[in-house]
Specification:
The chain has helices at 2-8, 24-29, 35-43, 58-63, 70-82, 99-105, 109-117, 132-139; strands at 16-17, 22-23. By secondary structure, it is mainly α. It holds the Pfam family Ank.
Amino acid sequence: MNSMIFLELGQDPNCFVEKTGRSTLHSLALTCKSVKVVQLLWKRGADPNGPDGLGSTTLHDICNSYVDGMDSAEMLFKFCHDESRPVKINARDRSGNTPLHVALKTRYINIVELLLRKGADPTLANDKGETPLHIIAVASCCPPDV
């Protein structure tokens, strides 16, 4: 595994690509195709709660992905639980959006439900003053029971 060699040679698992402001973990979290590499990065110290250049955490990225991020989200919560490293579920990006705001805007109802079960605060407002309820009302994206 090439990733392991780089990490063994001292590559920082939290290094960012200057052009994008994204870490390897942020990029891989979106695809969940490289589960072993993601797990290796975590075990070598990659911060699953670390923000990218826009203040987004790995969880923000999963919630903003155009692929179904449920597997990635569940993997993130499981790893953080197993390693006693709590997920910052209410972390805010530069616009004040939490992962719940992002998941609602991208209409990922399964992830919205997961975030709420894991303790996401549905009363937090972003920098525009929007709470998750505002996003639901404007987008009319969710069934009444969400």
